[in-house]
Design brief:
With 114 residues, this protein is mainly alpha-helical. It folds into 2 domains: 70 residues, no CATH class; 36 residues, no CATH class. It has a 3-stranded antiparallel beta sheet, with no helix packed on it. β2 and β3 form a beta hairpin. The longest helix is centred in the first third of the chain and has 15 residues. The protein binds zinc ion (ZN). The site of zinc ion has 8 residues, from loops.
C-alpha cells in the first residue's frame, strides 16, 4: 500500500480522491511531512467535536485538509473531569485500568471510570 492509500484509509471523508492524491503529492514533495504523523492527527481529529458534529458534515475534503497543512494541526485531547462520588472532590488521579483514586486524604475512595 502506498503512503497515500494508508492515509486515505483512515481519512473519514472519502470524496474527491483524485484531488486528495494530487494534494498529497504536492504537499509531500514540498513539506516532506511524516505519513504516520498525518495519520495520527487524522485519528485524533476524528474524535474531536468539530469532526463528530452533524455526522461529520464539517470534515473538510482531504485535499483541502492537506493543502492547509492539516498534519500540523494541534488536536486538543478531551480532558475528562472526574469527580469523587463520595466527597465531590475533583482531585482524582488515574489508577490502573478504569479505576481512579480520590486524593482527598479524608476520603481516599476509588472512583470508578465511566
Ligand atoms: Zn473523595
Amino acid at each position: 500500500m502506498t503512503d497515500f492509500e494508508q492515509f486515505w484509509q483512515v481519512y473519514p471523508k472519502k470524496l474527491s480522491k483524485i484531488d486528495a492524491l494530487k494534494a498529497w503529492g504536492q504537499m509531500k514533495k514540498r513539506y516532506k511531512f511524516d505519513t504516520d504523523k498525518a495519520i495520527a492527527v487524522v485519528e485524533a481529529q476524528k474524535k474531536s467535536k468539530a469532526w463528530l458534529k452533524d455526522g461529520g458534515e464539517f470534515i473538510p475534503y482531504a485535499g483541502t485538509w492537506l493543502r492547509a497543512g492539516g498534519w500540523e494541526n494541534e488536536v486538543e485531547s478531551k480532558k475528562e473531569t472526574r469527580v469523587c462520588a463520595n466527597c465531590e472532590s475533583k482531585d482524582v488521579v488515574a489508577g490502573d485500568g478504569r479505576r481512579w483514586w480520590c486524593k482527598n486524604s479524608e476520603c481516599r475512595r476509588i472512583v470508578r471510570g465511566y
